Amino acid sequence: MLLFWAVGGYNRLMAQRNQIADCWARLHDTLRQRAAAVEPLLAELQAPMAAEAGALQAFSTAHALALRCAAEMATRPVDQPRAAAWVAAETALAA
After folding, report:
1. Which of 14, 35, 38, 87 has its CA 20 to 30 A from that of 66?
2. Which pLDDT tens digit goes with each residue over 12-34?
3. Sign of CA dihedral 67, 72, 77, 78
């Protein structure tokens, strides 16, 4: 009976791990779609915003950092330091 309980517990943990990975994969796809929409916007705004070069550079840097952190989260979604870095990058991008 103890063996069945251990196998059942292990299966539940694996199912939850797979659900977490699936959720992060969906989030990663959404972020990739957002990135695809932001890149043409950046290209169009570079010429008229020559006076605002500092803000555009900060936005571009924050965008690149958010993409890199999202890609790292896709490789290991349950790693707490990577999650904290991802949250910080998304906060910087939103700011």
Report:
1. 14
2. 999 999 999 999 999 999 988 98
3. negative
Whole-number Å distance between alpha carbons of 60 and 6? 49
pLDDT digits (tens, 9 = 90+) for 55-86: 778 888 888 888 888 888 777 767 778 888 87
To the question of pTM greater than 0.85 for the whole model, the response is no
**Token reading at 16:** 């939850």
Structure tokens, 14: 């694996």
Phi-psi region of 62 (alpha: psi -120 to 50; beta: other; left: phi over 0): alpha
* CB-based contacts of 38, cutoff 8 Å, min separation 6: 63
